[in-house]
Specification:
four-stranded antiparallel β-sheet
């Protein structure tokens, strides 16, 4: 081991070697994502000879990060945009000829893949918002010819439309003015109300997938329950049968049979992931996987049609994603590839689930990572700490390998990630507790866990930073303005500074999401809502900033537009407050290109070293591979 030397940033954040493995339906071919000439592309090999593969695509622009086989095994399908503007196109590639085609060659449109099916081979249902940018109409696209036929004209303002395996629209969702949702049944051309959902139930309730017989619908629902469960809904009678659930945590992932779509297992995630078995026959398989990979989190990510071969993705805090081929008949696991094999030469840090109470009594499950050389639960002396805040806010932090935690711990910091109220997976009361609590109780949860870390002797009170992207960027701005004495520096990325402008500039195709956002944050159409949004917006508290800030944004961000960062930087400069501001002109809501991503983290690392006193790897060529622009405060990095 070479734990004494810093782990190079490029080993943690450059392109992964390989990930995203998928089996062809007949189990004969394997595809995955790996770099080709520095850009993530799709690779292919015979499943029996996985190390004999080569690139299936050779794209040069933005990385491909997801791919899948069509149900008939004829094509491999993926989506991508050009600049980070989320105007995705749907592409297919023929694995025999390597011909690549754009099925949705329409500029300025965000295409969505809705369904492909073994029951209707050669056809793909795609959503397009070219007629009205707010709503997606459904089309059936012929994968061979590219011809497109209208399936559903969405004049009903449906935010989502679900189809069955015969590619028939069967149900839909629209928003309600109170922030909830209305579910609709579709029977041919007839549309009838089905279910009214309140604000919280709507987030945790909805269709998952039709059974192969198209007569039963797998649902996730929390209606009349505290936690979300999986149920089968008989489409004709409306009878609901609960299949699996948990008293404290929401159900999360499903494993279904690849052709019948029977539910076979479901996961729940507390401090760690656990699997609940529905089909007894898979329990033996999971026990083999668990015994082969002790301490790992794992998911079944691909299955052959005959369901005897699986692809298993596994990871733990101390090992990045590793992909295996599992033979159910033989009970054998064969390693296919590792995402970051070069990290095997370094000692990685364990991640510790920790839990404490919020000031008003909520259980806050969080994750703590200490430098790898610390083998005890607590360091001998308090460490500088980075509070690493997840985005969303309706997502959550999980146990497992995290490059950001390993990077910061390797530089000498304690790293704490908090599942603040509104985080998903902990039941609907935990989500409901976040309503209109941005920069209030949601931020209190972060501060409460910081205080816990100080009391426990983990964090040095004078050297705590706040860091995050998207909602985590907003939380970092809030940390600098609402609690300016807690953090010695803050590093927001693609963050929100003005809740009013955020809600007024949402992408048009978020129209079905708007009422939920208004209920959650505050309604910009009312005087009271405007007052609340202003009260909770960092842009109106710039004069409180007293500690250094390093701000990042992508110029093409459509979710949290660059004006969010531009305006607060201008206000800081007008008030004579030092700030360093970095913009990536070819990125959107996040930094997908590896050169940009590494530059982002290299600059953040130097900033943390300056203000927290940790270690910093020299820049080397890190900044040369990026298109970033330092728009203010460049002199702060002269020493590096």
């Amino acid at each position: 081991m070479t734990a004494q030397s810093l782990i190079p940033r490029k080993l943690l954040f450059a392109n992964a070697n390989a990930f995203g493995g998928r089996l062809s339906p007949d189990g004969q071919w394997l595809t995955w994502i790996a770099p080709f000439e520095g850009v993530l592309n799709i690779w292919i090999a015979p499943a029996a000879e996985p190390h004999s593969g080569g690139p299936l695509t050779r794209t040069k622009g933005r990385p491909i990060t997801w791919q899948e086989w069509t149900a008939d095994g004829r094509f491999v399908i993926f989506v991508n945009d050009e600049t980070g503007d989320e105007n995705n196109h749907v592409f297919i590639v023929d694995p025999r000829t390597k011909e690549l085609r754009d099925l949705t060659p329409i500029d300025g449109v965000s295409a969505q893949i809705k369904m492909w099916s073994r029951q209707v081979p050669g056809k793909i249902v795609v959503g397009l918002n070219d007629r009205d940018p707010r709503w997606h109409d459904l089309y059936i696209v012929d994968a061979v010819t590219g011809e497109r036929d209208l399936l559903w004209l969405n004049t009903q303002d449906f935010g989502n439309i679900d189809v069955d395996w015969q590619l028939r629209p069967r149900c839909a969702r629209s928003s309600s003015l109170d922030g909830g949702s209305k579910l609709w049944r579709i029977d041919g051309d007839e549309v009838t109300p089905w279910m009214d959902l309140d604000h919280v139930d709507s987030w945790l309730t909805g269709p998952i997938i039709f059974h192969g017989d198209n007569n039963r619908l797998l649902m996730q629902t929390c209606v009349a329950r505290e936690t979300a469960v999986f149920t089968w809904l008989d489409w004709r009678s409306g009878e609901e049968t609960v299949i699996v659930g948990h008293p404290r945590f929401d159900v999360r992932n499903v494993l279904v049979h690849p052709t019948t779509f029977d539910l076979e297992a479901a996961s729940i995630v507390g401090a760690r992931q656990d699997w609940l078995y529905v089909a007894p026959q898979v329990q033996a398989d999971f026990e083999i996987i668990r015994n082969t990979l002790p301490g790992f989190e794992f998911n079944i990510v691909s299955q052959s049609d005959e369901n005897r071969t699986w692809i298993v993705d596994a990871h733990k805090a101390e090992q990045a994603l590793t992909t295996f081929l599992y033979d159910r008949d033989k009970g054998t696991m064969t390693e296919l590839f590792r995402a970051r094999p070069a990290l095997d030469s370094y000692k990685l840090a364990p991640m510790r689930p920790v839990e404490a109470k919020s000031r008003d009594g909520l259980d806050l499950l969080s994750y703590l990572t200490l430098p790898a050389g610390i083998t005890t639960e607590r360091p001998d002396t308090p460490l500088p700490m980075v509070l690493d805040v997840h985005g969303g806010p309706w997502s959550r932090d999980l146990y497992g390998y995290r490059g950001d935690h390993q990077w910061l711990a390797d530089r000498g910091y304690a790293v704490l990630s908090v599942n603040y109220r509104g985080s998903m997976g902990f039941g609907k009361a935990f989500v409901a507790a976040s309503e209109k609590q941005h920069a209030a109780k949601m931020h209190d949860d972060l501060i409460d866990m910081v205080d816990w870390a100080i009391r426990e002797g983990i964090a040095d009170k004078s050297r705590i930073a706040i860091f995050g992207a998207s909602y985590g960027g907003y939380a970092s701005f809030v940390g600098a303005t609402f609690t300016p004495d807690v953090f010695c520096c803050s590093v927001p990325g693609v963050g929100i500074t003005n809740l009013q402008t955020l809600l007024e500039s949402m992408p048009p195709y978020w129209s079905g999401f708007a009422d939920f956002m208004y209920r959650s944050y505050g309604d910009p159409k009312t005087d009271n809502g405007q007052a609340l949004l202003a009260e909770r917006s960092p842009i109106h508290k710039v004069d409180r900033i007293k500690r250094p800030m390093l701000i990042f944004h992508g110029a093409n961000d459509v979710r949290c537009k660059i004006a969010e960062s531009d305006t607060i930087v201008a206000a800081m400069q007008a008030n004579g407050i030092p700030v360093t501001y970095v913009v990536f002109p070819d990125e959107g809501h996040g930094f997908a290109k590896p050169g940009n991503r590494i530059a982002y983290l290299a600059l953040a690392e130097a900033f943390f070293a300056m203000h927290l006193g940790g270690k910093c790897e020299p820049f080397g060529s890190d900044l040369d591979d990026s298109s970033h622009q330092i728009r203010s405060g460049a002199e702060i990095f002269d020493m590096f």
